[in-house]
Design a protein that fits this description.
This protein has 212 residues and is an all-alpha fold. It contains 10 helices and no strands.
């Protein structure tokens, strides 16, 4: 899972990004959510994090503490976990063969530019269904385009405006190599469907059939 995430993350990275580029910044909830996903993908497979349902091992405590740190919103420097977590794991007797993949994954993923956007737009369940229909109709969900539809969906979850979602999606499509004109057409299709009464009717029909 961590390797798959790494491949997707590298596909959307910008050439100007470098480790250590964020120091003492304030992060949005969308930023934090994206960091948590990256961190979890890198650490999920580390062995011996728990003894049972409730008992956390020393290694598990290292991961837990780093996970709490990564959620800091104000004066945040998430790059700190790139060195601090491996050091903690070594201090509790972790094997270098287990630590190295985690360290490499963190170094490759944590400093990447943020791709999720957030906002304060209130959406309903109906709006969410319309988003799914619009993305499915307008953008192929196969990899790597699926990375961009995921960014759109996650940004929707963080209450970004439709304009912000459209811009982020088009930027993503261009970054992964789509023709700019084609990317623009895909996003125009998305914008149109999100305001199309027939798409809203499809969403309402789905709710009527499956319950809401």
């Amino acid at each position: 899972m961590a390797l798959q995430f790494l491949v997707l993350a590298l596909a959307i990275s910008a050439a100007s990004c470098a480790p250590g580029s964020r120091h003492g910044v304030d992060l949005s909830q969308a930023n934090i959510g994206e960091l948590v996903e990256r961190f979890s993908a890198c650490t999920r497979g580390y062995p011996n994090q728990s003894k049972g349902s409730f008992d956390v091992t020393p290694a598990g405590q290292c991961v837990k503490d780093a996970g709490i740190f990564i959620k800091r919103r104000h004066n945040a420097n998430p790059n700190e976990v790139i060195t601090s977590l491996p050091e903690c794991l070594r201090s509790v007797g972790g094997l270098e063969s287990d630590i190295a993949p985690v360290a490499q994954c963190l170094q490759a993923n944590i400093p990447l530019p943020f791709t999720y956007v957030g906002g304060n737009t209130y959406y309903t369940y109906l709006d969410g269904l319309m988003l799914n229909f619009a993305l499915s109709d307008c953008i192929h969900a196969d990899s790597p385009s699926g990375t961009c539809t995921n960014i759109a969906s996650r940004s929707f979850d963080y209450s970004a405006s439709l304009d912000a979602i459209a811009v982020a999606t088009e930027d993503c499509l261009v970054r992964i190599g789509a023709d700019k004109n084609e990317a623009s057409q895909n996003v125009q299709c998305f914008r149109a469907e999100m305001n199309d009464p027939s798409v809203r009717a499809r969403a309402q029909e789905y709710i009527n059939e499956h319950g809401g």
